[in-house]
Structures are given as structure tokens and as C-alpha cells.
Amino acid sequence: MKIDFKFSRLLYLSNILSIYRAFLVIPLWLLIGNINNSLNLTLLILVVITGMLSDFLDGYYARKLNQVTEEGKIIDPLADKIVVAAVSIKLYTIGVLDPLLFWIVILRDLFIVIPAFFISSKFKSVPPSNMTGKIAVNVIAVFFISLMFGLNKDSLIYTVLYYAAIIMIIVSFSNYLLISVKRFKGTNETL
């Protein structure tokens, strides 16, 4: 079984916003670690704001315009994972992101994306993003944005955001596993 993919649904506003967000990795990659002048700093702020807005607006328009699609259920979280992975790699390579958090972020996303392809092919649908996943992405985003703008590693804010990101990654991954197991149990299928 496979998902009934239609190219025309990629042109829905909600999916265009998700695709746009995925392509923001290019300016993010170029600007992170290179905010030595006010123009680059302003551009980085604008890119981050438009990325966050697109993450909110894609789901809003999908529901408002009745454009919730299987493609969108794939593209939206995939765009999040692309951006988070690219920013993680960039922050890690410039020495700003702690290796432990870097590997937790990367491995969590790999352990979600790889089985998701299997699950989607088996059930011909993809479960929509859930609130714990959205919260985790936003906590990671706040932490990464703070790092991009020079958050002091010795500060209390750094410590709180660092551990909040780790906790939310674990919670969202556990929730994803629970949902996946329930989905399989409800169908009498085996992994």
C-alpha cells in the first residue's frame, strides 16, 4: 500500500508554507555564526520570524481552507525536522551546540523519520503532528534561537532551556512510540 500522492495538493497554501520553511535552511545556514554586522543580524531575525510564522500558518490554513492532506502530514513535520537538523549541525560545527544535545536531536529525528516511512506505507496514511511534538520543536527552536544570539552557557536561562529541550525531546519521542504501537495494535498487524 502507498499513500495516494497528488502533486496538485503540494500547491495548497498550507503545503507551500511548509515547503518554504524547509528551504529556509539555506539562509539560516549562511547567517548562523555570521551575525557580525547589523544587516546579517536583521536578516537572521527576519528568517527566524518567517520560519516560525510559516510553522503556525501552515496548520492554520490547512484546517481553515479544508486542505488537510496526507502530503501535508508528511511535509509539515519533515520541514521541521530539516530545519532542526540543519540548524543543529550548523550550531554544532561552529562549537555552540553541546554534543550531547546535538546527538539527542539528530537521533530522535532519525528514529522517528525512518519508521514513519514504514508506518505510512503500511497504513496508507500518516498520523498528523501532535501537540507534544509541536511543543518539543518550539522548545528546541527557542533554545537554538537563544544560542544563535549568544546566550551565555553559564546562565540559568541556558540551563533551563537546555534541560527543557532534552525533556521535551524524550517526551515527544515516547509519545510518538506510544501512538505508533497503539496504531499497530488496533489493526492486528505486526511490525
Which secondary structure elements does this structure contain, and how are they paired or packed?
Elements: H1 7-10, H2 13-23, H3 25-31, H4 38-64, H5 70-93, H6 99-123, H7 131-148, H8 156-185
Helix pairs in contact: 2-4, 2-5, 5-6, 5-7, 6-8, 7-8
Low-confidence stretches: none
The biggest beta sheet reads: none
**How many helix segments?**
8
Structural class: mainly alpha
Rg value = 17 Å
Q: What is the share of helical residues? A: over 70%
Number of strands: 0
Q: State the separation between the terminal residues, measured CA to CA.
A: 15 Å
**Domains, number:** 1
- By oligomeric state, this entry counts as single chain
Mean pLDDT, nearest integer? 85
Query: What percent strand?
Result: under 5%
List descriptors.
single chain, 191 residues, mainly alpha, Four Helix Bundle (Hemerythrin (Met), subunit A), 8 helices, 76% helix
How would you concisely characterize the structure shown here?
The chain has 191 residues and is mainly α.
Descriptive report:
This protein has 191 residues and is an all-alpha fold. The chain has one domain (7-185): Four Helix Bundle (Hemerythrin (Met), subunit A). The protein is 76% helix and 0% strand. The protein has helices at 7-10, 13-23, 25-31, 38-64, 70-93, 99-123, 131-148, 156-185. It is globular. The model has no long low-confidence stretch (mean pLDDT 85).
